């Protein structure tokens, strides 16, 4: 894969490690920083300063393959948003809303449209409805999240970062797998089109020889 990193094995052979760049996006206070920190440290910390922008590098194994994840925890506050920069940088997006905040849900639906417009493609993403521990304050139904994810053609998770459910790791891993699948398809397409070009030139040469020109 083109977006890889060469790492030496113990036997001295170079091995390509996938590098995946993920941006975590959502309105202020939906739990983006808590989600990233939970994934990286398996801990939940109740209070963070509102994020400006924070990035992390994380090395892990997914499906028995070494992976480097670069994770950008973006600013939720509108005036801090430097969207174009991270949209172009990222391979995929974790779109987070809080099930207790209707506006945060509407925001991510609009953000997805914006991401598709900037990237000029249907971007790879997962949709995450956070804070399900606050069920009594629920403002967004499970099936609304599920339907939005269907429209976005992406995976959907409802979770609680504070409860520390197993699915938090799965959110990041699932997005990595989707990105990897997409890159493989794109590479295959590129290889096929260069093979087609070679075949085309070869056929023209054969025609010329056949015509005696
Ligand atoms: N009850 C509950 N609170 C949560 C959960 N996840 C995060 N929080 C709380 O929500 C608040 C905001 O969390 P952050 O992780 O700072 O949210 P953020 O989206 O990064 O916010 P910005 O940095 O301002 O964009 C904090 O008080 C967290 O403790 C959760 O699953 N359940």
TrEMBL record:
Keywords annotated in UniProt: Hydrolase
Catalytic reaction list: GTP + H2O = GDP + phosphate + H(+)
Major enzyme class: hydrolase
Enzyme Commission number, as recorded: 3.6.5.2
GO MF terms held by the record: G protein activity; GTP binding
SMART domains cross-referenced by the UniProt entry: RAB, RAS, RHO
Superkingdom assignment: Eukaryota
NCBIfam families: small_GTP
Matching PANTHER family: RAS-LIKE FAMILY MEMBER 11 (PTHR45704)
Similarity comment: family membership: Belongs to the small GTPase superfamily. Ras family.
Protein name, per record: small monomeric GTPase
């Amino acid at each position: 894969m083109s977006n890889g990193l060469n790492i030496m094995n113990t036997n001295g052979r170079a091995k390509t490690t996938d590098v995946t760049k993920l941006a975590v996006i959502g309105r202020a206070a939906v739990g983006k920083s808590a989600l990233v920190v939970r994934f990286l440290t398996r801990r939940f910390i109740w209070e963070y300063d509102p994020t400006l922008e924070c990035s992390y590098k994380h090395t892990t194994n997914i499906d028995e393959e070494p992976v480097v994840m670069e994770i950008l925890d973006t600013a939720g506050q509108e005036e801090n948003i430097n969207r174009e920069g991270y949209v172009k940088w990222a391979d995929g997006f974790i779109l987070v809303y809080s099930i207790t905040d209707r506006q945060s849900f509407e925001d991510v639906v609009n953000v997805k449209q914006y991401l598709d417009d900037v990237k000029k493609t249907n971007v790879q993403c997962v949709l995450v409805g956070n804070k399900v521990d606050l069920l009594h304050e629920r403002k967004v139904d499970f099936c609304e999240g599920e339907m939005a994810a269907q429209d976005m053609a992406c995976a959907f998770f409802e979770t609680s970062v504070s409860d520390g459910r197993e699915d938090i790791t799965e959110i990041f891993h699932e997005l990595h797998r989707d990105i990897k699948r997409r890159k493989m398809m794109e590479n295959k397409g590129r290889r096929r089109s260069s093979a087609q070009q070679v075949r085309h030139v070869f056929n023209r040469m054969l025609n010329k020889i056949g015509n005696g020109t």
